[in-house]
Amino acid sequence: MVKMKRKNINNIKIISTGHYTPPGTLSNFDLEKIVDTSDEWIYSRTGIKSRHIVYDEKTSDLAYHAARNAIGKANYDMSKIDIILVATCTGDYNSPSVACKVQALLGLDRQDIACFDVNAACSGFIYALCIASQMLNSNRYFSALVIGAETLSLYTDYQDRSTCVLFGDGAGAVILENTEEHKAADFYLSAKGEMDLSIVINDKIWMDGRKIYQFAVKAIEQSINIIMHNNELIESDILAIIPHQANLRIIEKAAQVLNIDINKFYINIEKYGNTSAASIPIAFDEFMSTLYNPNGKKVIFVAFGAGLTWGAAMLTL
Ligand code: UT7
After folding, report:
1. Residues 303, 200 share a domain
2. Residue in 118, 81, 88 with CA at minimum distance from that of residue 103
3. What is the chain's Cα-based Rg?
4. The domain spanning residue 263 has which CATH number?
5. What is the tens place of the pLDDT at every residue in 209-228?
6. Which of 11, 120, 184, 276 is least buried, going by the fewest C-beta atoms within 10 A?
7. Which residues have CB under 6 Å of ligand 1?
8. pLDDT digits over 86-99, tens only?
9. 6: number of CA atoms within 13 Å, CB side?
10. Do 173 and 294 reside in the same domain of the chain?
11. Are residue 15 and residue 48 in the same domain, yes or no?
12. Is the overall model pTM greater than 0.70, yes or no?
């Protein structure tokens, strides 16, 4: 039984979005040459055809390029940014944070900018958005650059066919501002810490795929039901659902269980694989580029990942 939390609606304006993926790619056919797998197996079980991987770039480089993309699209005055928040579980170092590196790469030398990373694995971008949103609504901060960035290929065991076909690298960014306008944003964050870990990123990624698959479908179902219930939304109120892109079959199964049209879900896993905390902001940026006048429409983000963590966000465009 899930305890419903009190409603806590923020007003947040999405100013711009951007993304960046490294130029190197690894297709299913490339993987066929490395491990005992096939394009047919990978595509039919996951929906993935290819993924981007770094050669010499770090997570902070991907994050920086995604940020520049978002800033450039809106011709945004960077000097307004007073929070840089990066969701990642594959930072350049344990410390300093990727966010501090992005601040330096952007040349933002104002010293009253809050810069830090958040690690909630693949759910990290939703956690980061929630934190940024609460900080903005405290009225102490005005503008936030929220990024999801990962270099999972650096932790991928290319001898393990059950995981190496899944992951890719990339980054997505969103610029948010505090606003007087009615732009409701709401969040549902959840976690169930495990003693017996079912997904771990240490030197390499290890995962119990079947267990995560079953957890993922339930996590998506629960998160979407809760965020819709808390905000009194019905399917027709939602322009799109941007899910964490881990496996096409997981998204299709969740859509079926929820009885929501699969066409409401924005899916781009074919090109990128699972980019963990970067998958939602990359997909969101692509989705935004398909829209003409989305003003006032609502989108839902939903994610799940190691921890276990899961959750959803509702934003007003
Ligand atoms: O961000 C969250 C992170 N993780 C996830 O979301 C992953 C969730 N889980 C999944 O997406 C799926 O469980 C996988 C895609 C990882 C695996 O798909 P599955 O349908 O659950 O396959 P399975 O693990 O049950 O394996 C079925 C068979 C096995 O062979 P046997 O034992 O039946 O002979 C595997 O050895 O497929 C074999 N197999 C492969 N065969 C060819 C596993 N990986 C591969 C591969 N190529 N890459």
Report:
1. yes
2. 81
3. 18
4. 3.40.47.10
5. 999 999 999 999 999 999 99
6. 184
7. 37, 41-42, 45-46, 122, 161-162, 165, 199, 207, 209-210, 212-213, 216, 246-247, 274, 305
8. 999 999 999 999 99
9. 1
10. no
11. yes
12. yes
